[in-house]
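Morning run. Coffee first, then this:
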Amino acid sequence: MSIFDQFVLSVFKYYKTRFKRKANTIAVFYISVLQSSILLLLGVFFAEFFKQMRVETMSSTKAWTLFFIASIIIYFKNWMSYSGKKRKVLNAKQTKRKSLQYSIWVLWLLPLGCIVLSIILLRVA
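And here it is:
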């Protein structure tokens, strides 16, 4: 079980008590935002790195278009994998053994931190 699976299950369990029907939608949205923000951070880092090395890779417009397309693909990948049987199997595996529960505040601060770091990297150079 990957760290993303554990994050999804933590968010799902937290919101299941409050929003029974929307818990899975919130969990899929959360993991998509987290993975997209990590992708943004890596993209900004490599863009600034290549700019410092004077390597011409692609224009800024094409890079942003590629990021939005990749974010949509990430959302649909997560929606397909965490909406069905896989989530039920992961939930059963997690209930068998003692698993680590993450704080919901820390989980929501992870994508926010990645976005803030990306903005800082964009503004520095």
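The mean pLDDT is 88. Good start to the day.
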